[in-house]
Specification:
Layout (H helix, E strand, L loop, with lengths): L6 H19 L11 H15 L6 E2 L2 E2 L6 H13 L3 H27 L1 H12 L2 H6 L6 H21 L2 H18 L2 H16 L12 H10 L1 H10 L1 H17 L12 H8 L7 H9 L5 H19 L11 H18 L5 H10 L1 H19 L1 H6 L1 H23 L3 H28 L3 H12 L5 E5 L6 H6 L3 E4 L2 H10 L3 E6 H12 L3 E7 L2 E6 L23
Parallel strand pairs: 3-4, 3-5
Antiparallel strand pairs: 1-2, 5-7, 6-7
């Protein structure tokens, strides 16, 4: 294990981290926040500032116990200093993505040295799913960065006996817990325990300083304790029972999936390095007696099995596997480059030969998904999308040609450039074109500019689109049916309603009758300003979300 640092090592680390941060930040503010998560988390951060309560997070005026607050604290800090924009909402994901690249470098250098570390960091930085999640306002990169730093610190302590490193491992896991819950400790702990079992080192737990768990409790659990005291059974049942245990043993928020759910996710998320997954797995399996190979295989295997067994499934859950995969691929490549006649040559030739096939399958999957999920948008955006598809298809083909002509280093360069070029096209062509098909942010901005301050905003059947709340800059009540609408009219003197043309003509028009003072179309939606009326008591009425008095489910 390599723990001594040189000036060259530090320069390599700074170079790859700076390059990754630049890649993730370039054009980061282009495009409105996406529903669901981006707009939701950012609005929660806005509410931290507006309510002055950084402990109990809020959504629609009511406590929100889904996740711990660390990521939203970071968003709130930058938002309060520089304003809440798309860039300030996303910048902590870019910072975290660069931190993931740094942690990849640290682990790879510890295992194999600085050359492998530099290549592993570059591979991780240009892996499709890492790139995507480092450019959107979600906290998975932040969680992953903390967990990887925790793993690195533990391995330093494991190999050197450093008490300080052991303590830092617990601190990092505590920060991961404050980002997305106890999984920040559970996943690294499962890997470390499995490592002890594989290496038959059952007594290594005695090396853990007693202060370590204490530091974890002090860093990772105070929010849980405070909220349990503040809100009692409601918090425990929601945050611990539903969003922690039921997320694994049941299905949360209608997000199920079959046991093989993550197989296609892994193949797509690893692009353009997908073709090297089998050979890297074989390469590492042949070295399973080495500590590095054991850690990589255990981390990736346990992560995939754990989330495959869980009832709730989302693509972002397996983000932790990509940095360790990058290390395995990099070690395979460095061995091949140093000695092309070695056993790595056959595996590398086989992997490179799959490049055209894998790129073809990836592109075909993108096209089919786009036509099924977004048929009209895919047809309208065929030119900018065709450019991206051409890059995804042409890049691996070029890399294959370069490999066949005996230029393996150029092959690596071509693969690294694929997602870099895709980002350039996205920022300058695709995302601006997509904005034309996203009316909700434009409507929200329109309402922010034109709606009178004392009017109450109501959105009809738009509960999955929190961006209307963020861009309108004021509370929104959610209307799901005619009964909700009747209660809104009863409770509010001045009411502005946003409804799609379909809902308006289907039932909203009849529900409001002649009570319309002003209306106008907006991007396929209808904005209705109702006549002022004296709100009266509504005995026995169901509670409307966003109003005092309870929570409607």
């Amino acid at each position: 294990m390599n723990t001594a640092w040189s000036v060259s090592d530090r320069r390599r680390l700074l170079l790859v981290v700076a390059a990754a941060f630049t890649l993730y930040c370039y054009g980061l503010g282009v495009g409105s926040l996406w529903d669901q998560d981006e707009a939701l988390y950012t609005q929660v951060a806005v509410d931290i500032v507006s309510t002055g309560d950084p402990i109990t997070l809020h959504r629609d005026g009511e406590p929100w116990f889904v996740h711990p607050p660390l990521y939203m604290w970071l968003q709130a800090a930058t938002g309060s200093l520089f304003g809440f924009t798309e860039f300030t909402a996303r910048v902590w994901s870019a910072v975290s993505g660069a931190a993931v690249v740094a942690a990849t470098f640290l682990l790879a250098r510890l295992f194999y040295g600085s050359r492998t570390a530099t290549l592993a960091a570059a591979i991780a930085a240009t892996t499709f799913q890492v790139v995507v999640q480092s450019r959107i306002a979600v906290f998975d990169p932040t969680l992953l960065a903390f967990m990887l730093f925790g793993l690195y610190a533990y391995l330093v302590g494991y190999t050197t006996g450093s008490r300080r490193a052991h303590l830092w491992a617990w601190v990092w896991c505590g920060l991961a817990t404050m980002t997305k819950g106890p999984i920040g400790l559970i996943l690294p702990a499962m890997v470390v325990t499995a490592l002890w079992v594989v290496r038959r080192e059952w007594g290594r737990w005695r090396e853990i300083p007693l202060l370590g768990p204490i530091l974890y409790v002090l860093v990772g659990l105070p929010w849980y304790v405070i909220e349990a005291v503040r809100h009692g059974e409601v918090f425990v049942r929601t945050a611990i029972g539903y969003y922690l245990f039921n997320r694994f043993f049941g299905v949360v928020e209608n997000q199920p999936g079959p046991w093989y759910y993550y197989a296609p996710v892994l193949l797509l998320g690893s692009y353009p390095w997908t073709t090297f997954l089998p050979s890297a797995a074989i390469w590492l399996a042949r070295r399973r007696g080495e500590l590095a190979g054991q850690v990589i295989l255990l981390w990736c295997g346990i992560t995939l099995v754990f989330y495959s067994l869980a009832g709730t499934k989302l693509p972002n859950y397996i983000l932790p596997v990509y940095p360790l995969i990058a290390i395995g691929i990099a070690h395979h490549w460095i061995t091949f480059l140093d000695d092309p006649s070695s056993e790595a040559r056959r595996l590398m030739r086989w992997s490179a030969g799959l490049l055209p096939l894998v790129s073809g399958l990836f592109v075909a999957g993108l096209i089919v998904y786009g036509r099924i999920k977004f048929p009209s948008e895919a047809a309208a955006l065929r030119v900018p999308l065709a450019v991206i598809v051409s890059i995804f298809a042409g890049g691996p083909f070029l890399a294959w040609i370069l490999y066949l002509t005996g230029r393996p280093r150029a092959t690596l360069g071509a693969l690294m450039l694929i997602n870099v070029v895709v980002i350039l096209v996205l920022v300058h062509a695709t995302l601006p074109a997509i904005e034309a098909y996203r009316p909700i942010p434009r409507i929200g901005r329109l309402l922010r500019r034109t709606a009178e301050p004392d009017v109450t905003l109501a959105a009809v059947r738009m509960r999955p689109t929190p961006s209307v709340r963020f861009y309108a800059g004021r509370p929104v009540i959610w209307i799901d049916d005619a009964e909700d609408l009747a209660q809104a009219q009863c409770r509010h003197a001045r009411l502005l309603i946003v409804a799609s043309e379909g809902d308006y003509r289907g039932w909203v028009e009849a529900a409001v009758g002649s009570n319309i003072r002003q209306q106008g179309p907006a991007d396929g939606y209808r904005i209705l300003v109702l006549k002022e009326r004296q709100p009266g008591p509504c005995p026995g009425a169901p509670h409307l979300p966003g109003q005092p008095g309870g929570t409607r489910r």
